[in-house]
Amino acid sequence: MVEEKPASVNETKEKVEKLLVKWKSKRGSLIMALHEIQGVFGFVPWSAVEIVSRELNIPVSQIYAVLTFYNYFKLSAPGKVIISLCDGTACHIKGAPSLIDAIYNCLGIKDGETTADGVFHLQIVRCLGCCGLAPVVVVNGKTYRKVVPADIPKIIAEWRSSITKK
Amino acid sequence: MVELTQEQIEKLKQLGRTQKENLLKLGEEFVQNHKKYIASIYTCNATGCHSGGAGNVIDAFKESLETFGLQDKVRMVATGCMGLCACGPLARVEIKGRDPFLYQQVTPDIARLIVSEHIVPTLKKDPSEPLKLSTYLKNKELSLNLPFFTKQKKVVLKNLGHSDPEDLGEYVAEGGYQALMKCLEMKPEEVIQIIKDSGLRGRGGAGFPTGVKWEMLAKAPLVDGEKFVVCNGDEGDPGAYMDSCILGGGAHQVLEGMMIAAYATGATSGWFYIRAEYPLALQRVELAIKQAKKYGILGRRIFGSDFDFMAELRYGAGAFVCGEETALLESLEGKRGTPHPRPPYPTQKGLFGKPTAINNVETLANIAPIILHGPKWFQKMGTKTSKGTKVFALTGKVQHSGLVEVPMGTKVSEMVNEIGGGTSSGKPFKAVQTGGPSGGVIPASHLDLPLCYEELKKIGSMMGSGGMIVMDYDDSMVEIAKFYLNFTVDESCGKCAPCRIGGYQMLQLVKKIADKRGSAADLEKIKEIGSAMKRGALCGLGQTAPNPVLSTIKFFKEEYDALIQEAETKRQAQQKLKGEMKQLEAQMNALNKEG
Q1: How many domains does one find in chain B?
Q2: Which of B335, B487, B493 to probe the A interface (max A CBs under 10 A)?
Q3: Closest-CA residue to B228 (of B329, B300, B338, B315)
Q4: ipTM of predicted assembly, 2 dp
Q5: Mind listing the pLDDT tens digit for each residue in B58-115?
Q6: Residue B573 domain-assigned?
Q7: Rg value, chain A, Cα
């Protein structure tokens, strides 16, 4: 879990309390509330979990159980550039494993890992629903289709330069 | 809910009747407004084509039409999935009096050329004059006479690729919500009878008769004044995206199906449970619900009847097991998605402990067409026990990869060789996998197999939700089995031992064989564990998890045997060397003693 600065905790509190208003009165809304929190912060901060627990009257243990059960939720901040590599069946048989190797060779990261400089994060996902374009890699929402291992260094260079420019 | 007075009810009914008229008017307005168009461009903007840059293509079309001042004469529509994803982005040009034209791999440049070379000159010409296109543009034409298009039969996907999924008026103009209106004038049991007569079975995989499920819910009494219908859109099977496209391109059709289900069963509200990984589907369902509320399709005393209904949208969060109905219900309640034993069935005790019927997206999308055309029409399609059509995501090493809808009973060979156009690599076809992590392989020797529930089950696979992955001679069946098992082990919720432990141990054995360390005894053990999991696991995930392994052992045992043989040869060589080493050591010791 990532340590948060005290200043950001207050800000988190405000944002989380605001978005919880809508879900408080609805049944079974924990997962929806967590989705919204992750939508705002990019992950679910621990301080937010405590607020959710209080506002929705659900024990922290139960929220933690839900957060760790579902693949979609992240408990720590991912990198600035999130590489989602599809390893669904169609992508798998069309060469996704060779792309995972290529990313490891380039960045030294495996599934769920972030580079030491905090820039790149790799997540291996199961089917993005564009099997006709397999194998597919999505970087911060931009889709690369029919990717071959030789494309990986180019894609990484493209994103590295766009980050340094910023 | 607050009790209403007779006067209030009458008022609501009056409002409902007005809303019905307004909705029908919306459809008429659509028709009136679109009379001005002499041509239409449909660009596929479903997930696949969108990822391929369809957004820019649509902008280029619009810009170009404006340049020529044609924006009021040519309709530009961003549509749902057109099917042939491998060739996307796709654009279809329809000019009054002429045959439709399909373009593939459209870029913004090609879009501009289509407007300037195809549309502008044609509009000036008499329809009898032939079309003149440059070779460059001609090369981008995709024949609509391809078996990929001609062999399909579209019921569920009828409006996809041919309408604006965000335009409620267009849906109404195409006959949308008329099935619901028709149902509201019938008795609920008559509606159930129609669905029973049609022979429709659940499209999520197991094939339970939909009408029977509805009847079970209809018979269950309300609990605290509530009963639910749930739309299962948690399509977790990797390599399948039918539901994603159906919801993204026809959310109203699914909502209408859900509402008919609710009317027939007496359900008070409905829930959509959709994968979070499908942003477009989520967005379209949200919009459909919003539009439906606005036009009084959702609400109280709908269209002046006694029917009240409200629908809500809930996101999945990346757990394959949540496609299993009891796990899905847990997840809808905001908990970990762990299944529980049946009975009690959800129709007795479901969401929040109240009777619930869970129907798959495609099942619900079939409802309105059945009501409109009648059960006899539906029965004419398909086989004796599997009626209607089925949508498949035809992917893997196949030339025409995409979304396909065919009558049940279509042969595997028709799917792979005709519709799919054969393997993409040109190498011989080896097998096709259906049913994803719960299914099995159909080898080349079974190309004549008709695609229907019973036949697929007979050979150790299953219909599943409709993923269909083509593999050629380069693909190792042991690797495929390992891939699927890895997936189910990863996605096992861990609640029951047969799945949690059995799956893991089986995976270790498959890995051992794949790494050329296995033995014939391991293969026997795999079969033993598999049969125990099938009998002992709590839910469908665990019960079907051994299928990919068992089915590849059944049809491609030689691949396992070859790896085991290699391991055996290696072991023998090691044994031999060890023996020789012992002899040498003994000799050495003897020499040392002598020395």
Answers
A1: 3
A2: B335
A3: B329
A4: 0.91
A5: 999 999 999 999 999 999 999 999 999 999 899 999 998 899 999 999 999 999 999 9
A6: no
A7: 18
